[in-house]
Design brief:
Blueprint: E1 5-11, H1 18-32, E2 36-42, H2 49-59, E3 63-67, H3 74-84, E4 89-93, H4 101-108, E5 116-121, H5 124-127, H6 136-148, E6 158-162, H7 163-170, E7 179-184, E8 187-192, H8 205-214
Parallel strand pairs: 1-2, 1-4, 2-3
Antiparallel strand pairs: 4-6, 5-6, 5-8, 7-8
Helix pairs in contact: 1-4, 6-8
Length: 216
């Protein structure tokens, strides 16, 4: 049986874009699995995002709504989504990024990899915004850090997190030593597989993602 899927959509003042993003997600998700949910986390919007969200909720039973009373930032919105979602696989869709069916399908195809901790889809357009001299480790570190910075709402696309893998690594005495990073075309992957570790260590990255996932 396919694992269940949750998509977390943190939004702020998204009255002009929310309906379109939900429609785009609903075009692709039923093709992946019947066991999916979309959790919109309204991070204290001051426009009509909340009303639009609840109107959409009446139309689509797969949609859930959570709301912060005031703006608490991207990291808090993601933590709220993770706490209230129930999927074995969790996608985090950045609100300012276009929904990409190709990215979603590519990440979903990795669901059978039991060692996969998280993955990030990256289109050419998003890659070009990063300095060409930036190494993979630096880019992934900035990616993880961006999720924890409440003021950072830069376009990041979509990420996938496996709950069980993070829980397993959390119990490890030296989890970061067991994390390997792989770069495929348009995709960056963190796997719990020490045998693939190169000489370059990745201090701090797993801790940031793990702390984000468990709300610490």
């Amino acid at each position: 049986m396919n694992p269940s899927l949750s998509i977390i959509l943190p939004v702020y003042n998204a009255q002009a874009t929310l309906a379109r993003q939900i429609a785009q997600l609903l075009e692709v998700l039923p093709d992946l699995t019947p066991r999916f949910e979309i959790l919109v986390v309204d991070d204290g919007s001051t426009d009509h995002t909340d009303e639009i969200g609840h109107e959409l909720r009446q139309q689509y039973p797969q949609l859930k709504i959570a709301r912060h009373a005031w703006q608490r930032g991207m990291a808090s919105a993601v933590q709220t989504g993770l706490a209230r979602s129930c999927g074995d696989i969790v996608f985090i869709q950045e609100e300012q990024a276009e929904v990409s069916a190709a990215d979603i399908r590519r990440l979903w195809e990795m669901r059978g990899d039991e060692n996969l901790v998280l993955a990030r889809a990256q289109s050419d357009a998003r890659d070009n915004k990063l300095p060409s001299a930036s190494g993979l480790m630096e880019r992934l570190t900035r990616w993880a850090a961006a999720l924890q910075q409440s003021s950072d709402r830069s376009t990041m696309g979509i990420q996938m997190i496996r709950r069980k893998a993070i829980d397993d690594l959390r119990r490890s005495p030296a989890p970061e030593d067991e994390l390997s990073i792989t770069e495929l075309p348009h995709t960056q992957i963190a796997r719990a597989d020490a045998s693939h570790m190169g000489p370059t260590q990745f201090p701090g990255f797993l801790r940031k993602v793990r702390d984000l996932a468990i709300g610490e």
